[in-house]
């Protein structure tokens, strides 16, 4: 019984960083978005997208940031 409790605790501890990844990426994305708006680009004039690093080569986009230990990239598209 004790063994299963410890195993459960280890599994939950290992899952905690995975659950935190989207929050971290959303925070970085929001910071970048605010910097772009502060530079005079209207909010309706661009978009930011979070994608896995291996999917970052999309035409018409520029990588403007990364998050989650560089496993995700933030892409900028201007309209």
Provide the residue-averaged pLDDT: 82
SSE sequence, one letter per element = HEEE
Number of helices: 1
Number of strands: 3
**Main sheet overview:** 3 strands, antiparallel
**Tally of discrete structural domains:** 1
Structural class: alpha+beta
- Percent of sequence in beta strands: 25-35%
Physical arrangement of strands within the biggest beta sheet: 1-3-2
| Helical content class | 40-55%
Q: What is the straight-line distance between the termini?
A: 59 Å
Q: Radius of gyration in whole Å, from Cα?
A: 17 Å
What is the 3D shape?
flat
State the low-pLDDT regions, or none: 15-21
Describe this structure in words.
With 79 residues, the chain is α+β, with helices and mostly antiparallel strands. The protein has one domain (20-78). The protein has one helix spanning 2-38; strands at 46-52, 62-67, 72-78. A three-stranded antiparallel beta sheet has the order 1-3-2, with helices on one face. A hairpin with a 4-residue loop joins strand 2 and strand 3. 5% of the residues are buried.
